[in-house]
Design goal:
By secondary structure, the chain is of the alpha/beta class. It is built from ten helices and 16 strands. It has a single domain, classed as Ribokinase (UDP-N-acetylmuramoyl-L-alanine:D-glutamate ligase, 3-Layer(aba) Sandwich).
């Protein structure tokens, strides 16, 4: 085995020492399973009614990161917003079930719990017991379209400040595209930027879909499409590694931040004094990429928390993500044993595009 693989595997033996805050947007991933053979016609409307025979509840967004960190053995403190509703109860139960610390979550009557409800339908002739046979038919999202109150925003920052002495790393998850319609608002971004600049020794890392160019003093992660969206005239080929490197350098220089850009099956680019491409893992067969970026984040930040170099942490992130995307109709997670086996090449999956 290479020295890099040995270093990562040695670090994985110490994951129980890592203490990580996952701060920002949380959501409930709700999967509803429906077999067309069980449909019935509504007596009231005459329309076809789907009947749900099974449901699966998991924590999403920041919860997906939390799930992977906990599956890998890290200690996690959750800071986010829950509505006082059924989805909030289910989300809290899901986070508690994996052993995360939910005592710093903020509960409110003024907002609903964000949730992604996915109706999964069984194809004709498929086995109802095979979860992988179902396909996504419809998605219904619970979202807020009002800004969290300043009391809630201040409480978010108070809880984060109270957690800094405990934490090795803070992951900011800025999930939503609409400005100020999630847990991370403009005001919170500015507060987190200042906190990161004054917090010596604590790793600050952000994954933001729409506002990556508004963060400072921390590691900024985005995928290649999110990177190009920060510029007015992006290149036509969004997968060209040379262009990804060029624009990643521009973004890092503009914000004086370290950049990390994921490139799908091509792995990721780690930007330091010189950009380094870290190859992904060649996965075959059907995949489900939902939550892949969150899995990468979990592996990367866990690696940094355990003292790995950035390229080693990036390799860990790519490995975790490659395992989760092989789990269909779910936001997957990886274990230390699975990661170690893949890094050693024991499961037949190798690195490279």
């Amino acid at each position: 085995m290479s020295n890099q693989v040995n270093n990562i595997i040695d670090a994985l033996a110490r994951t129980g020492e890592a203490k990580i805050v996952v701060f920002g947007d949380y959501a409930l991933d709700k999967y509803l399973y429906s077999n067309p053979a069980n449909d019935e016609v509504s007596a009231e409307t005459g329309d076809n009614a789907f009947r749900i025979h099974k449901k699966k509840m998991m924590a999403g967004a920041g919860g997906t990161i939390t799930n992977n960190l906990r599956s890998l053995g890290a200690n996690v403190r959750c800071i986010g917003i829950l509505g006082n509703d059924g989805e909030g109860l289910e989300l809290e139960n899901a986070l508690n079930a994996v052993g995360a610390d939910t005592s710093y979550l903020i509960r409110t009557d003024s907002l609903c719990t964000c949730a992604y409800t996915k109706i999964l339908r069984l194809p004709d002739g498929a086995d109802p017991a095979d979860d992988n046979a179902y396909f996504e038919w419809k998605r219904l999202d619970f979202r807020n379209f009002v800004e969290p109150s300043m009391d809630i925003q201040r409480k978010m920052m108070e809880n984060l400040e109270a957690s800094l002495e405990w934490a090795d790393a803070v992951i900011v998850i800025d999930q939503f595209y609409q400005r100020n319609m999630g847990a991370v608002t403009d005001w919170i971004r500015e507060q987190v930027n200042e906190m990161a600049g004054n917090s010596h020794g604590t790793i600050f890392y952000v994954d933001s879909r729409s506002f990556a160019n508004e963060y400072r003093n921390m590691i900024i992660k985005c995928n290649n499409l999110e990177l190009f969206s920060l510029f007015e005239n992006p290149p036509a080929d969004k997968e060209d590694l040379g262009e990804i490197i060029r624009y990643g350098k521009l973004a890092g220089e503009k914000q004086a931040c370290e950049m990390l850009v994921t490139c799908g099956k091509k792995g990721m680019i780690v930007f330091g004094q010189e950009p380094v491409r870290v190859p992904g893992f060649k996965v075959t067969g059907p995949i489900d990429i939902v939550g892949a970026g969150d899995a990468t984040t979990a592996g990367f930040v866990l690696g940094l928390s355990l003292g790995l170099e950035k390229t080693e942490a990036a390799t860990l992130g790519c490995c975790v993500s490659s395992i989760t995307i092989q789990q269909l109709n779910t936001t997957g997670k990886a274990t230390v044993q699975q990661v170690a086996a893949r890094l050693k090449g024991e499961d037949g999956v190798v690195r490279g595009e």
